[in-house]
């Protein structure tokens, strides 16, 4: 337990209770009666604050309203806010990447959905212009993965956004 000894409204000594009361042994931590008899207070280091805009900073203990605090709350800087936002975006990107990696439909579902959307002829025409390896992949694949480069390329060719491709896969799953 971190304590501060108060004399005449000022902090005289502070630290871990074993260091503040060097000549006293405790079984556990000092009790409230002992603290009152020795003009000591626990140093408060837990304060509520808004994690989105503020941070807790550990400081040398200070008195405020008769209470000893070992922390202050400060506003986050513009750089800190930008780092938090970047981290959130990275986490969202990772979730989306995971979601996209798990979007898999059968080639049958893909072709039927392309037919339903009126896109099958355009896709087959474009695939015919690609490398032999890409043509074999299109012709003989059993499944179509949302994150596959050929799917991304076809989506761009057809003018589909990421949301459009996601919706295409969700709709094809129902076939």
Structural notes for this entry:
It contains eight helices and seven strands; from the N terminus they run E-E-H-H-E-E-E-H-E-H-H-H-E-H-H. It folds into two domains: 2-75, no CATH class; 101-173, no CATH class. The chain has a three-stranded antiparallel sheet with strand order 2-1-3. It has a two-stranded antiparallel ribbon with strand order 4-5. Strands 6-7 form a two-stranded antiparallel sheet. The chain has 175 residues and is an alpha+beta fold.
Produce the secondary structure layout.
Layout: E1 2-7, E2 10-16, H1 17-20, H2 32-37, E3 40-42, E4 54-64, E5 67-75, H3 78-101, E6 104-106, H4 107-117, H5 120-128, H6 132-140, E7 143-145, H7 149-157, H8 162-173
In short:
The chain is of the alpha+beta class.
Question: Could you report the average pLDDT, rounded to the nearest whole number?
Answer: 88
Q: Segments where pLDDT lies below 50 for 5+ residues?
A: none
Relative helix content = 40-55%
Number of strands: 7
Which structural class should the secondary elements be placed in? Answer: alpha+beta
H and E string: EEHHEEEHEHHHEHH
Strands side by side in the biggest sheet: 2-1-3
Number of domains: 2
Distance between the termini: 64 Å
Largest sheet: 3 strands, antiparallel
Radius of gyration: 32 Å
Helical run tally? 8
Cα shape:
rod-shaped
Beta-strand share of residues? 15-25%
